[in-house]
Amino acid sequence: MQDGSQSGNNEFWTQQYQQKVDKIKPKPPIAKNLFWAFVVGGLICVLGQGIQDWFVCLGMAKKDAAAPTSAVMIFLGAFFTGIGVYDELGRRAGAGSIVPITGFANSIVAPAMEFKREGYVFGIGAKMFVIAGPVIVYGTVTAVTVGFIYWMLH
Amino acid sequence: MNKKHGKQSIIFGVPPAIASTATIVGPMEGEGLLGSYFDKVMEDNIGEHSSWEKCESYMLEWVINTALNKTNVAASDVDYILAGDLLNQLMATHFAMRNINRPFIGIYGACSTMAKSMLLGSILLDGGFGEKVVAACSSHHDAAERQYRFPTELGVQRPPMAQWTVTGAGAVLLTATGDGPKITAATVGKIVDAGIKDPNAMGPAMAPAAADTLWQHIQDTGRQPAYYDMIYTGDLGAVGKQLLIQLIQEKGIDISANYEDCGCMIYREEQDPHSGASGCGSSAVVMCGYLYPRLLAGKIKRILLIGTGSLHSQTSYQQKESIPCIAHAVAVEG
Amino acid sequence: MQTYLMAFLVGGLICIVGQLLMDLTPLTPAHVLVVFVVAGGILSGLGIYQPLVDIGGAGATIPLPGFGHALVSGTIEDVNKYGFLGIFSGALRATATGLTAAVVFGFLAAVLFNPKG
Is the pTM for the entire model greater than 0.90? Predict the structure, then answer.
Protein backbone atom coordinates (compact mmCIF):
# COMPACT_ATOMS: atom_id res chain seq x y z
CA MET A 1 0.00 0.00 0.00
CA GLN A 2 1.40 3.36 -0.86
CA ASP A 3 -0.63 5.39 1.59
CA GLY A 4 0.14 3.63 4.86
CA SER A 5 2.36 6.27 6.40
CA GLN A 6 0.82 9.09 8.40
CA SER A 7 2.75 11.84 6.73
CA GLY A 8 2.07 10.42 3.27
CA ASN A 9 5.81 10.03 2.64
CA ASN A 10 5.33 7.16 0.27
CA GLU A 11 2.93 9.07 -1.90
CA PHE A 12 5.48 11.84 -2.06
CA TRP A 13 8.22 9.63 -3.38
CA THR A 14 6.12 7.54 -5.70
CA GLN A 15 4.17 10.30 -7.43
CA GLN A 16 4.63 10.01 -11.18
CA TYR A 17 7.65 7.87 -10.45
CA GLN A 18 7.40 5.73 -13.57
CA GLN A 19 7.76 8.89 -15.68
CA LYS A 20 10.89 9.91 -13.78
CA VAL A 21 12.36 6.48 -14.38
CA ASP A 22 11.45 6.45 -18.06
CA LYS A 23 13.11 9.80 -18.55
CA ILE A 24 16.51 8.71 -17.36
CA LYS A 25 16.60 5.03 -18.08
CA PRO A 26 19.22 4.00 -20.62
CA LYS A 27 17.89 2.84 -23.94
CA PRO A 28 19.13 -0.37 -25.51
CA PRO A 29 21.45 0.12 -28.47
CA ILE A 30 18.65 -0.62 -30.90
CA ALA A 31 20.56 -0.11 -34.15
CA LYS A 32 23.38 -2.37 -33.00
CA ASN A 33 20.92 -5.00 -31.75
CA LEU A 34 18.94 -4.98 -34.98
CA PHE A 35 22.11 -5.34 -37.02
CA TRP A 36 23.35 -8.35 -35.08
CA ALA A 37 19.90 -9.94 -34.93
CA PHE A 38 19.66 -9.61 -38.71
CA VAL A 39 23.12 -10.93 -39.45
CA VAL A 40 23.19 -13.83 -36.99
CA GLY A 41 19.57 -14.82 -37.68
CA GLY A 42 20.22 -14.67 -41.39
CA LEU A 43 23.36 -16.76 -41.12
CA ILE A 44 21.68 -19.45 -39.02
CA CYS A 45 18.97 -19.67 -41.69
CA VAL A 46 21.62 -19.92 -44.39
CA LEU A 47 23.12 -22.81 -42.46
CA GLY A 48 19.69 -24.42 -42.30
CA GLN A 49 19.26 -23.94 -46.03
CA GLY A 50 22.60 -25.59 -46.63
CA ILE A 51 21.67 -28.58 -44.49
CA GLN A 52 18.32 -28.91 -46.22
CA ASP A 53 19.98 -28.78 -49.66
CA TRP A 54 22.40 -31.47 -48.55
CA PHE A 55 19.51 -33.78 -47.61
CA VAL A 56 17.90 -33.07 -50.99
CA CYS A 57 21.24 -33.90 -52.60
CA LEU A 58 21.10 -37.26 -50.84
CA GLY A 59 17.87 -37.95 -52.65
CA MET A 60 15.12 -36.64 -50.39
CA ALA A 61 12.25 -34.60 -51.72
CA LYS A 62 12.37 -30.99 -50.59
CA LYS A 63 9.28 -31.39 -48.44
CA ASP A 64 10.67 -34.45 -46.71
CA ALA A 65 14.01 -32.77 -46.03
CA ALA A 66 12.46 -30.17 -43.71
CA ALA A 67 12.02 -32.55 -40.79
CA PRO A 68 15.58 -33.93 -40.60
CA THR A 69 16.88 -30.39 -41.19
CA SER A 70 15.12 -29.18 -38.08
CA ALA A 71 16.47 -32.18 -36.17
CA VAL A 72 20.03 -31.27 -37.16
CA MET A 73 19.52 -27.62 -36.25
CA ILE A 74 18.14 -28.69 -32.90
CA PHE A 75 21.16 -30.90 -32.37
CA LEU A 76 23.44 -27.97 -33.10
CA GLY A 77 21.55 -25.67 -30.75
CA ALA A 78 21.69 -28.31 -28.02
CA PHE A 79 25.39 -28.95 -28.57
CA PHE A 80 26.44 -25.31 -28.50
CA THR A 81 24.35 -24.73 -25.43
CA GLY A 82 26.01 -27.70 -23.77
CA ILE A 83 29.50 -26.40 -24.39
CA GLY A 84 28.51 -23.04 -22.98
CA VAL A 85 28.75 -21.01 -26.15
CA TYR A 86 25.12 -20.30 -27.00
CA ASP A 87 24.53 -17.85 -24.15
CA GLU A 88 27.51 -15.82 -25.36
CA LEU A 89 25.99 -15.74 -28.83
CA GLY A 90 22.64 -14.72 -27.39
CA ARG A 91 24.15 -11.81 -25.51
CA ARG A 92 25.24 -10.19 -28.74
CA ALA A 93 22.76 -11.52 -31.26
CA GLY A 94 19.54 -11.25 -29.25
CA ALA A 95 16.63 -12.28 -31.43
CA GLY A 96 19.09 -13.55 -34.02
CA SER A 97 19.81 -16.51 -31.77
CA ILE A 98 16.49 -16.75 -29.91
CA VAL A 99 14.07 -16.83 -32.88
CA PRO A 100 15.63 -19.60 -35.01
CA ILE A 101 14.91 -23.16 -34.02
CA THR A 102 18.41 -23.41 -32.52
CA GLY A 103 17.13 -20.97 -29.90
CA PHE A 104 14.29 -23.36 -29.17
CA ALA A 105 16.85 -26.06 -28.50
CA ASN A 106 18.79 -23.65 -26.29
CA SER A 107 15.67 -22.95 -24.27
CA ILE A 108 15.32 -26.68 -23.64
CA VAL A 109 18.90 -27.57 -22.88
CA ALA A 110 19.67 -24.56 -20.66
CA PRO A 111 17.12 -25.32 -17.93
CA ALA A 112 17.68 -29.07 -18.26
CA MET A 113 21.41 -28.58 -17.56
CA GLU A 114 20.76 -25.97 -14.91
CA PHE A 115 18.46 -28.15 -12.86
CA LYS A 116 20.40 -31.39 -13.28
CA ARG A 117 21.51 -31.02 -9.68
CA GLU A 118 17.95 -31.57 -8.63
CA GLY A 119 17.97 -35.01 -10.22
CA TYR A 120 16.84 -36.75 -13.37
CA VAL A 121 13.12 -36.72 -12.76
CA PHE A 122 12.37 -33.40 -11.09
CA GLY A 123 15.46 -31.68 -12.40
CA ILE A 124 16.18 -32.55 -16.01
CA GLY A 125 12.88 -34.19 -16.77
CA ALA A 126 10.51 -31.63 -15.33
CA LYS A 127 12.45 -28.43 -16.02
CA MET A 128 13.30 -29.18 -19.64
CA PHE A 129 10.21 -27.43 -20.94
CA VAL A 130 10.01 -24.61 -18.44
CA ILE A 131 10.67 -22.03 -21.17
CA ALA A 132 9.86 -23.95 -24.36
CA GLY A 133 6.63 -25.39 -22.98
CA PRO A 134 4.49 -22.32 -23.70
CA VAL A 135 5.67 -22.43 -27.33
CA ILE A 136 4.43 -26.00 -27.69
CA VAL A 137 1.20 -25.32 -25.82
CA TYR A 138 0.20 -22.23 -27.75
CA GLY A 139 1.49 -23.57 -31.03
CA THR A 140 -0.67 -26.66 -30.64
CA VAL A 141 -3.70 -24.67 -29.48
CA THR A 142 -3.33 -22.41 -32.51
CA ALA A 143 -3.04 -25.40 -34.82
CA VAL A 144 -6.13 -27.06 -33.40
CA THR A 145 -8.08 -23.82 -33.59
CA VAL A 146 -7.09 -23.19 -37.20
CA GLY A 147 -7.70 -26.85 -38.00
CA PHE A 148 -11.17 -26.67 -36.50
CA ILE A 149 -12.04 -23.55 -38.45
CA TYR A 150 -10.70 -25.19 -41.60
CA TRP A 151 -12.75 -28.32 -40.95
CA MET A 152 -15.84 -26.21 -40.41
CA LEU A 153 -15.36 -24.37 -43.68
CA HIS A 154 -14.71 -27.46 -45.79
CA MET B 1 17.30 6.43 28.40
CA ASN B 2 15.22 6.98 25.34
CA LYS B 3 17.04 5.40 22.43
CA LYS B 4 14.19 5.57 19.94
CA HIS B 5 14.30 8.83 18.07
CA GLY B 6 11.52 10.12 15.91
CA LYS B 7 9.45 7.65 13.93
CA GLN B 8 11.92 5.04 12.83
CA SER B 9 15.40 5.67 14.23
CA ILE B 10 17.63 4.57 17.05
CA ILE B 11 20.59 6.29 18.61
CA PHE B 12 22.52 3.72 20.56
CA GLY B 13 23.36 4.32 24.21
CA VAL B 14 26.61 2.38 24.10
CA PRO B 15 27.48 2.09 20.40
CA PRO B 16 28.76 -1.38 19.53
CA ALA B 17 32.13 -1.66 17.84
CA ILE B 18 33.02 -3.47 14.65
CA ALA B 19 35.95 -5.57 15.84
CA SER B 20 36.74 -7.25 12.54
CA THR B 21 35.36 -8.08 9.10
CA ALA B 22 36.03 -10.61 6.35
CA THR B 23 35.14 -10.89 2.69
CA ILE B 24 35.24 -13.55 -0.02
CA VAL B 25 34.31 -13.01 -3.66
CA GLY B 26 34.13 -14.75 -7.02
CA PRO B 27 36.63 -14.22 -9.85
CA MET B 28 34.64 -11.47 -11.56
CA GLU B 29 34.55 -9.36 -8.41
CA GLY B 30 38.22 -10.13 -7.87
CA GLU B 31 38.99 -8.60 -11.26
CA GLY B 32 36.90 -5.55 -10.48
CA LEU B 33 37.73 -2.16 -9.03
CA LEU B 34 38.07 -3.34 -5.42
CA GLY B 35 39.75 -6.66 -6.16
CA SER B 36 42.76 -6.10 -3.94
CA TYR B 37 40.60 -5.30 -0.90
CA PHE B 38 38.98 -8.69 -0.51
CA ASP B 39 40.35 -11.36 1.80
CA LYS B 40 39.88 -14.16 -0.70
CA VAL B 41 39.09 -14.33 -4.39
CA MET B 42 37.80 -17.71 -5.55
CA GLU B 43 39.10 -19.20 -8.77
CA ASP B 44 35.66 -19.89 -10.10
CA ASN B 45 32.08 -19.73 -8.93
CA ILE B 46 31.81 -23.32 -7.76
CA GLY B 47 35.17 -24.69 -6.64
CA GLU B 48 35.00 -28.25 -5.40
CA HIS B 49 31.33 -28.00 -4.50
CA SER B 50 28.62 -29.88 -6.28
CA SER B 51 26.28 -26.92 -6.66
CA TRP B 52 26.30 -23.14 -6.58
CA GLU B 53 24.16 -23.17 -3.48
CA LYS B 54 26.70 -25.33 -1.67
CA CYS B 55 29.46 -23.00 -2.80
CA GLU B 56 27.54 -20.07 -1.34
CA SER B 57 27.21 -21.91 1.97
CA TYR B 58 30.94 -22.44 1.95
CA MET B 59 31.51 -18.73 1.30
CA LEU B 60 29.33 -17.71 4.22
CA GLU B 61 30.96 -20.18 6.57
CA TRP B 62 34.40 -19.01 5.43
CA VAL B 63 33.79 -15.31 6.08
CA ILE B 64 32.32 -15.90 9.50
CA ASN B 65 35.23 -18.09 10.58
CA THR B 66 37.77 -15.71 9.08
CA ALA B 67 36.29 -12.66 10.80
CA LEU B 68 36.50 -14.53 14.11
CA ASN B 69 40.05 -15.78 13.49
CA LYS B 70 41.28 -12.27 12.76
CA THR B 71 40.64 -11.29 16.39
CA ASN B 72 41.23 -14.73 17.91
CA VAL B 73 37.63 -14.98 19.03
CA ALA B 74 36.36 -18.52 19.29
CA ALA B 75 33.00 -19.32 17.77
CA SER B 76 31.86 -20.47 21.19
CA ASP B 77 32.25 -16.88 22.45
CA VAL B 78 29.81 -15.53 19.90
CA ASP B 79 26.42 -14.91 21.48
CA TYR B 80 24.35 -14.71 18.29
CA ILE B 81 24.83 -15.01 14.58
CA LEU B 82 22.53 -12.98 12.34
CA ALA B 83 22.84 -13.99 8.70
CA GLY B 84 20.97 -14.27 5.45
CA ASP B 85 21.14 -14.61 1.67
CA LEU B 86 18.95 -14.32 -1.40
CA LEU B 87 17.88 -17.92 -1.79
CA ASN B 88 14.50 -19.42 -1.01
CA GLN B 89 14.26 -20.44 2.63
CA LEU B 90 17.75 -18.89 3.16
CA MET B 91 19.21 -22.13 1.86
CA ALA B 92 22.86 -21.11 1.73
CA THR B 93 22.74 -19.64 5.24
CA HIS B 94 21.07 -22.55 6.96
CA PHE B 95 23.49 -25.09 5.64
CA ALA B 96 26.44 -22.89 6.60
CA MET B 97 25.03 -22.47 10.12
CA ARG B 98 24.69 -26.22 10.45
CA ASN B 99 28.46 -26.34 10.78
CA ILE B 100 28.96 -23.29 12.96
CA ASN B 101 26.66 -24.36 15.75
CA ARG B 102 25.89 -21.08 17.52
CA PRO B 103 22.58 -19.42 18.38
CA PHE B 104 21.36 -18.20 15.05
CA ILE B 105 18.71 -15.85 13.71
CA GLY B 106 18.07 -15.94 9.97
CA ILE B 107 17.44 -12.66 8.19
CA TYR B 108 15.76 -12.07 4.86
CA GLY B 109 16.11 -8.54 3.59
CA ALA B 110 17.10 -9.27 0.01
CA CYS B 111 19.96 -6.91 -0.76
CA SER B 112 19.46 -4.95 2.47
CA THR B 113 20.50 -7.92 4.58
CA MET B 114 23.95 -6.59 5.52
CA ALA B 115 22.67 -3.29 6.91
CA LYS B 116 19.67 -5.05 8.43
CA SER B 117 21.71 -7.62 10.31
CA MET B 118 24.18 -4.98 11.50
CA LEU B 119 21.22 -2.95 12.75
CA LEU B 120 19.65 -5.88 14.60
CA GLY B 121 23.01 -7.03 15.95
CA SER B 122 23.63 -3.57 17.36
CA ILE B 123 20.24 -3.58 19.05
CA LEU B 124 21.04 -6.90 20.73
CA LEU B 125 24.37 -5.59 22.00
CA ASP B 126 23.26 -2.12 23.07
CA GLY B 127 20.31 -3.71 24.78
CA GLY B 128 22.65 -5.74 26.94
CA PHE B 129 21.61 -9.06 25.47
CA GLY B 130 25.11 -10.24 24.71
CA GLU B 131 28.74 -9.31 24.20
CA LYS B 132 29.54 -10.51 20.69
CA VAL B 133 27.38 -10.76 17.58
CA VAL B 134 28.34 -11.80 14.07
CA ALA B 135 26.35 -10.23 11.23
CA ALA B 136 26.89 -11.78 7.81
CA CYS B 137 25.30 -12.26 4.42
CA SER B 138 26.06 -13.61 0.98
CA SER B 139 24.87 -13.74 -2.58
CA HIS B 140 25.92 -15.89 -5.53
CA HIS B 141 25.32 -14.77 -9.08
CA ASP B 142 24.48 -18.13 -10.57
CA ALA B 143 22.39 -19.38 -7.67
CA ALA B 144 20.40 -16.15 -7.76
CA GLU B 145 19.97 -16.18 -11.55
CA ARG B 146 18.49 -19.65 -11.63
CA GLN B 147 16.08 -18.80 -8.85
CA TYR B 148 14.97 -15.35 -9.87
CA ARG B 149 15.56 -15.11 -13.57
CA PHE B 150 16.73 -17.48 -16.29
CA PRO B 151 18.92 -20.56 -16.46
CA THR B 152 22.45 -19.33 -16.87
CA GLU B 153 23.08 -20.94 -20.27
CA LEU B 154 20.01 -19.37 -21.85
CA GLY B 155 20.89 -17.01 -24.66
CA VAL B 156 19.06 -13.87 -23.51
CA GLN B 157 20.13 -10.25 -23.69
CA ARG B 158 20.07 -8.39 -20.40
CA PRO B 159 18.46 -4.96 -20.68
CA PRO B 160 20.75 -1.96 -20.08
CA MET B 161 19.16 -1.23 -16.69
CA ALA B 162 19.79 -4.73 -15.37
CA GLN B 163 22.27 -5.25 -12.55
CA TRP B 164 24.69 -8.11 -11.97
CA THR B 165 24.27 -10.10 -8.76
CA VAL B 166 27.54 -10.19 -6.84
CA THR B 167 29.11 -13.51 -5.95
CA GLY B 168 30.40 -12.52 -2.56
CA ALA B 169 29.99 -12.79 1.18
CA GLY B 170 30.86 -10.46 4.03
CA ALA B 171 30.83 -10.78 7.80
CA VAL B 172 31.31 -8.34 10.67
CA LEU B 173 32.08 -9.18 14.28
CA LEU B 174 30.27 -6.69 16.51
CA THR B 175 31.27 -6.31 20.14
CA ALA B 176 29.46 -4.49 22.94
CA THR B 177 32.72 -3.05 24.22
CA GLY B 178 36.14 -2.65 22.71
CA ASP B 179 37.88 -0.85 19.89
CA GLY B 180 36.81 -0.27 16.35
CA PRO B 181 34.52 1.93 14.33
CA LYS B 182 31.21 2.22 16.15
CA ILE B 183 27.65 1.86 15.00
CA THR B 184 26.15 4.97 16.51
CA ALA B 185 22.70 5.11 15.02
CA ALA B 186 20.29 3.25 12.78
CA THR B 187 17.02 3.77 10.97
CA VAL B 188 14.62 0.92 10.38
CA GLY B 189 13.04 1.18 6.95
CA LYS B 190 9.44 0.66 5.93
CA ILE B 191 8.23 -0.88 2.73
CA VAL B 192 7.87 1.54 -0.16
CA ASP B 193 6.32 0.38 -3.40
CA ALA B 194 6.78 2.81 -6.25
CA GLY B 195 4.76 0.77 -8.68
CA ILE B 196 7.74 -0.52 -10.66
CA LYS B 197 7.00 -3.99 -12.02
CA ASP B 198 10.12 -4.75 -14.00
CA PRO B 199 12.56 -6.93 -12.04
CA ASN B 200 15.28 -5.72 -14.39
CA ALA B 201 14.75 -2.25 -12.92
CA MET B 202 15.57 -3.08 -9.32
CA GLY B 203 17.69 0.00 -8.75
CA PRO B 204 14.88 2.36 -9.79
CA ALA B 205 12.42 0.26 -7.79
CA MET B 206 14.48 0.68 -4.62
CA ALA B 207 15.43 4.35 -4.92
CA PRO B 208 12.19 5.64 -3.32
CA ALA B 209 12.70 3.34 -0.33
CA ALA B 210 16.25 4.66 0.06
CA ALA B 211 14.95 8.22 -0.20
CA ASP B 212 12.28 7.52 2.39
CA THR B 213 14.73 6.04 4.89
CA LEU B 214 17.35 8.73 4.33
CA TRP B 215 14.74 11.45 4.77
CA GLN B 216 13.40 9.82 7.91
CA HIS B 217 16.93 9.39 9.28
CA ILE B 218 17.54 13.11 8.86
CA GLN B 219 14.21 14.02 10.47
CA ASP B 220 14.59 11.59 13.37
CA THR B 221 18.23 12.09 14.29
CA GLY B 222 18.66 15.71 13.29
CA ARG B 223 21.83 14.74 11.41
CA GLN B 224 22.08 16.52 8.08
CA PRO B 225 23.81 14.74 5.15
CA ALA B 226 26.92 16.83 5.74
CA TYR B 227 27.28 15.14 9.14
CA TYR B 228 28.57 12.12 7.20
CA ASP B 229 31.73 12.09 5.15
CA MET B 230 29.97 9.72 2.78
CA ILE B 231 26.53 8.22 2.38
CA TYR B 232 26.43 4.82 0.68
CA THR B 233 23.50 2.88 -0.70
CA GLY B 234 23.77 -0.86 -1.14
CA ASP B 235 22.93 -1.49 -4.75
CA LEU B 236 20.87 1.15 -6.49
CA GLY B 237 23.11 0.96 -9.54
CA ALA B 238 23.87 3.77 -11.93
CA VAL B 239 20.25 4.53 -12.76
CA GLY B 240 18.88 4.15 -9.21
CA LYS B 241 21.65 6.38 -7.92
CA GLN B 242 20.56 9.25 -10.18
CA LEU B 243 16.98 8.73 -9.13
CA LEU B 244 17.83 8.90 -5.43
CA ILE B 245 19.71 12.17 -5.87
CA GLN B 246 16.74 13.53 -7.81
CA LEU B 247 14.12 12.32 -5.33
CA ILE B 248 15.84 13.62 -2.22
CA GLN B 249 16.48 16.92 -4.03
CA GLU B 250 12.72 17.35 -4.18
CA LYS B 251 12.75 17.58 -0.39
CA GLY B 252 15.47 20.19 -0.57
CA ILE B 253 18.33 17.84 0.35
CA ASP B 254 21.45 17.70 -1.79
CA ILE B 255 23.62 14.61 -1.45
CA SER B 256 25.41 14.78 -4.78
CA ALA B 257 28.67 15.78 -3.13
CA ASN B 258 29.00 12.99 -0.57
CA TYR B 259 27.04 10.05 -1.93
CA GLU B 260 28.04 6.87 -3.73
CA ASP B 261 26.37 3.55 -4.39
CA CYS B 262 28.21 0.32 -3.49
CA GLY B 263 26.83 -1.30 -6.63
CA CYS B 264 28.72 1.21 -8.74
CA MET B 265 32.00 0.60 -6.95
CA ILE B 266 32.60 -3.06 -7.65
CA TYR B 267 32.86 -3.74 -11.37
CA ARG B 268 34.87 -2.11 -14.12
CA GLU B 269 33.00 -0.89 -17.16
CA GLU B 270 34.79 -3.44 -19.35
CA GLN B 271 33.22 -6.21 -17.30
CA ASP B 272 29.86 -5.11 -18.72
CA PRO B 273 27.75 -5.19 -15.55
CA HIS B 274 25.20 -2.93 -17.27
CA SER B 275 23.76 -0.80 -14.48
CA GLY B 276 26.01 -2.06 -11.68
CA ALA B 277 26.21 -4.70 -8.98
CA SER B 278 23.36 -6.01 -6.85
CA GLY B 279 22.74 -8.69 -4.26
CA CYS B 280 23.42 -9.00 -0.55
CA GLY B 281 27.07 -9.28 -1.48
CA SER B 282 27.14 -5.80 -2.97
CA SER B 283 26.86 -3.83 0.25
CA ALA B 284 28.50 -6.63 2.25
CA VAL B 285 31.79 -6.81 0.38
CA VAL B 286 32.11 -3.05 -0.03
CA MET B 287 31.35 -2.39 3.65
CA CYS B 288 33.47 -5.22 5.01
CA GLY B 289 36.31 -5.14 2.50
CA TYR B 290 36.71 -1.52 1.59
CA LEU B 291 34.87 0.87 3.91
CA TYR B 292 35.84 -0.82 7.17
CA PRO B 293 39.62 -0.58 6.63
CA ARG B 294 39.22 3.05 5.61
CA LEU B 295 37.31 3.76 8.81
CA LEU B 296 39.95 1.93 10.84
CA ALA B 297 42.74 3.89 9.19
CA GLY B 298 40.97 7.17 9.80
CA LYS B 299 40.72 7.91 6.08
CA ILE B 300 37.02 8.39 6.54
CA LYS B 301 35.30 9.26 9.81
CA ARG B 302 31.55 8.91 9.48
CA ILE B 303 29.48 6.98 7.01
CA LEU B 304 25.84 6.15 6.61
CA LEU B 305 25.26 2.77 4.98
CA ILE B 306 21.76 2.41 3.51
CA GLY B 307 21.14 -1.19 2.55
CA THR B 308 18.42 -1.43 -0.09
CA GLY B 309 16.31 -4.50 -0.82
CA SER B 310 13.69 -5.36 -3.42
CA LEU B 311 11.25 -7.76 -1.88
CA HIS B 312 9.60 -9.42 -4.86
CA SER B 313 9.45 -13.11 -5.69
CA GLN B 314 9.13 -15.10 -8.91
CA THR B 315 5.51 -15.67 -8.02
CA SER B 316 4.70 -12.04 -7.29
CA TYR B 317 6.25 -11.04 -10.60
CA GLN B 318 4.25 -13.62 -12.50
CA GLN B 319 1.12 -12.41 -10.76
CA LYS B 320 1.90 -8.99 -12.24
CA GLU B 321 2.57 -7.35 -8.89
CA SER B 322 4.90 -4.40 -8.54
CA ILE B 323 8.07 -4.57 -6.46
CA PRO B 324 7.87 -3.57 -2.77
CA CYS B 325 11.23 -2.33 -1.50
CA ILE B 326 12.86 -1.43 1.78
CA ALA B 327 15.97 0.39 2.96
CA HIS B 328 17.68 0.13 6.35
CA ALA B 329 20.36 2.56 7.48
CA VAL B 330 23.27 2.16 9.88
CA ALA B 331 25.63 4.97 10.81
CA VAL B 332 29.22 3.93 11.40
CA GLU B 333 31.71 6.31 12.95
CA GLY B 334 35.43 5.71 13.31
CA MET C 1 23.15 -18.71 -54.66
CA GLN C 2 19.82 -16.99 -54.98
CA THR C 3 18.23 -19.37 -52.45
CA TYR C 4 20.93 -18.65 -49.89
CA LEU C 5 20.58 -14.90 -50.30
CA MET C 6 16.82 -15.13 -49.85
CA ALA C 7 17.23 -17.40 -46.84
CA PHE C 8 19.57 -14.85 -45.28
CA LEU C 9 17.27 -11.91 -45.99
CA VAL C 10 13.99 -13.49 -44.97
CA GLY C 11 15.46 -15.11 -41.85
CA GLY C 12 17.25 -11.92 -40.89
CA LEU C 13 14.10 -9.86 -41.32
CA ILE C 14 12.03 -12.16 -39.15
CA CYS C 15 14.70 -11.88 -36.45
CA ILE C 16 14.63 -8.10 -36.77
CA VAL C 17 10.93 -8.13 -36.01
CA GLY C 18 11.68 -10.23 -32.94
CA GLN C 19 14.42 -7.86 -31.81
CA LEU C 20 12.13 -4.85 -32.22
CA LEU C 21 9.50 -6.54 -30.09
CA MET C 22 12.06 -7.32 -27.40
CA ASP C 23 13.66 -3.86 -27.35
CA LEU C 24 10.64 -1.62 -27.80
CA THR C 25 7.90 -3.46 -25.91
CA PRO C 26 7.75 -4.97 -22.41
CA LEU C 27 7.59 -8.44 -24.02
CA THR C 28 10.20 -10.88 -22.75
CA PRO C 29 11.96 -13.34 -25.08
CA ALA C 30 9.60 -16.09 -23.94
CA HIS C 31 6.59 -13.94 -24.90
CA VAL C 32 8.12 -13.16 -28.27
CA LEU C 33 8.58 -16.87 -29.01
CA VAL C 34 4.93 -17.57 -28.20
CA VAL C 35 3.78 -14.60 -30.31
CA PHE C 36 5.87 -15.83 -33.23
CA VAL C 37 4.68 -19.40 -33.13
CA VAL C 38 1.05 -18.29 -32.94
CA ALA C 39 1.57 -15.69 -35.67
CA GLY C 40 3.21 -18.28 -37.89
CA GLY C 41 0.27 -20.58 -37.33
CA ILE C 42 -2.31 -17.93 -38.13
CA LEU C 43 -0.48 -16.75 -41.24
CA SER C 44 -0.21 -20.35 -42.30
CA GLY C 45 -3.94 -20.82 -41.87
CA LEU C 46 -4.58 -17.74 -43.96
CA GLY C 47 -2.38 -19.17 -46.68
CA ILE C 48 0.15 -16.36 -46.37
CA TYR C 49 3.07 -18.27 -44.87
CA GLN C 50 3.56 -20.88 -47.62
CA PRO C 51 4.41 -18.19 -50.21
CA LEU C 52 6.98 -16.86 -47.76
CA VAL C 53 8.47 -20.35 -47.52
CA ASP C 54 8.53 -20.58 -51.31
CA ILE C 55 10.51 -17.33 -51.48
CA GLY C 56 12.69 -17.64 -48.42
CA GLY C 57 13.19 -21.35 -48.01
CA ALA C 58 14.97 -22.02 -44.73
CA GLY C 59 14.74 -18.31 -43.96
CA ALA C 60 11.06 -18.95 -43.31
CA THR C 61 11.16 -22.48 -41.92
CA ILE C 62 14.03 -22.16 -39.46
CA PRO C 63 12.69 -19.21 -37.41
CA LEU C 64 9.94 -19.98 -34.95
CA PRO C 65 6.98 -18.79 -37.08
CA GLY C 66 8.10 -21.65 -39.32
CA PHE C 67 7.35 -24.04 -36.46
CA GLY C 68 3.87 -22.57 -36.17
CA HIS C 69 3.47 -23.02 -39.90
CA ALA C 70 4.54 -26.64 -39.66
CA LEU C 71 2.02 -27.28 -36.89
CA VAL C 72 -0.85 -25.74 -38.82
CA SER C 73 -0.05 -27.15 -42.26
CA GLY C 74 0.28 -30.59 -40.69
CA THR C 75 -3.14 -30.17 -39.10
CA ILE C 76 -4.74 -29.06 -42.35
CA GLU C 77 -3.19 -32.01 -44.19
CA ASP C 78 -4.62 -34.43 -41.65
CA VAL C 79 -8.03 -32.79 -41.73
CA ASN C 80 -8.03 -33.28 -45.49
CA LYS C 81 -7.04 -36.92 -45.06
CA TYR C 82 -8.92 -37.95 -41.94
CA GLY C 83 -11.61 -35.37 -41.36
CA PHE C 84 -12.44 -34.27 -37.83
CA LEU C 85 -9.84 -36.41 -36.06
CA GLY C 86 -7.18 -34.80 -38.21
CA ILE C 87 -7.62 -31.67 -36.13
CA PHE C 88 -5.92 -33.48 -33.26
CA SER C 89 -3.43 -35.66 -35.08
CA GLY C 90 -1.87 -33.29 -37.57
CA ALA C 91 0.12 -30.78 -35.55
CA LEU C 92 2.36 -33.07 -33.55
CA ARG C 93 2.59 -35.64 -36.32
CA ALA C 94 4.11 -33.06 -38.65
CA THR C 95 6.56 -31.82 -36.07
CA ALA C 96 7.30 -35.19 -34.50
CA THR C 97 10.88 -35.36 -35.78
CA GLY C 98 11.75 -31.96 -34.40
CA LEU C 99 10.06 -32.49 -31.05
CA THR C 100 11.63 -35.90 -30.53
CA ALA C 101 15.01 -34.43 -31.44
CA ALA C 102 14.41 -31.64 -28.93
CA VAL C 103 13.62 -34.04 -26.11
CA VAL C 104 16.41 -36.50 -26.87
CA PHE C 105 19.20 -34.03 -27.64
CA GLY C 106 18.03 -31.91 -24.75
CA PHE C 107 18.29 -34.86 -22.42
CA LEU C 108 21.69 -35.93 -23.72
CA ALA C 109 23.16 -32.46 -23.53
CA ALA C 110 21.86 -32.05 -19.98
CA VAL C 111 23.40 -35.36 -18.94
CA LEU C 112 26.76 -34.76 -20.61
CA PHE C 113 27.33 -31.08 -19.87
CA ASN C 114 27.24 -28.78 -16.86
CA PRO C 115 26.19 -25.13 -16.76
CA LYS C 116 29.11 -22.76 -16.53
CA GLY C 117 27.30 -19.76 -15.14
Answer: yes
